[in-house]
Amino acid sequence: MRQNRFVPAWPWPPSNWAAVTPTCLEQLKQCQYADTNRVRSDVLYCVERLVAATALLVLAPIAIVIAITILALSRRNPLIRHHRIGWRGRPLPMLKLRTMWDAGSPPARRFAIENVSGPVPTSKCIPDARVNGRFAAFCRRHSLDELPQLYHVARGEMSLVGPRPVTLEELQEHYGSSADEVLSVRPGLTGLWQVRGRSRLSYARRRRLDLLLVRRASASLYLKILVRSIPSVLTGRDAY
Fold first, then answer.
1. C-alpha span between 168 and 19 (Å, rounded)
2. What is the DSSP letter of 82?
3. How far, in Å, CA of 98 to CA of 46, rounded?
4. Among 183, 176, 175, 167, which residue's Cα sits nearest to residue 118?
5. pLDDT attached to residue 74
6. pLDDT tens sequence across 180-204
7. Would you say 229 and 162 are in contact if contact means Cβ atoms under 8 Å apart?
């Protein structure tokens, strides 16, 4: 999150150096720390957008093959738009590849991108019966249905690492008074609970890990989550 610069409530440099107190020096350190954090945040923001745009180009052939397969299986647009809550409470129409559809009732506009705002699941600890077939289940297990979200990272709406974006209902029911804190950073493509249990975690545990990620954000934690996400996605461990 971009931080506002701290402005000391006293003139600098001081006319009388003897009047400089430890409190003044501490305020100066805070000012310098805020500026450093802002620069680091801006650099990371630009790097993430560049990495996401490059990844979109590299992974485009895989995404196209998956989309064509889903189109053939579902007879619908392979993309859906799921309504989530993004950074600072802004609406985030998040793109995903379709893994659920009702074969018996095709939509009126079959090839339009469908807007989805489904009910809040009571548990993510069991396989979802709404997932259509082995191919769709494979895509979900290995997070292939989330490839289009690199587009949101490239646009600056999401981050590579951060709390996963949730629906308004999930936010109200499971995050409560902690919602503002979770929304103070950009939602991520992967996060702490994605590498510490994924679907087998309860909502209470997910909330605690999201808050831990926000409160203890650091370069080392960021890189650790990125690195650990790779085997988690490749193996599909703890995903349904």
1. 52
2. E
3. 29
4. 167
5. 86
6. 999 999 999 999 999 988 888 888 9
7. no
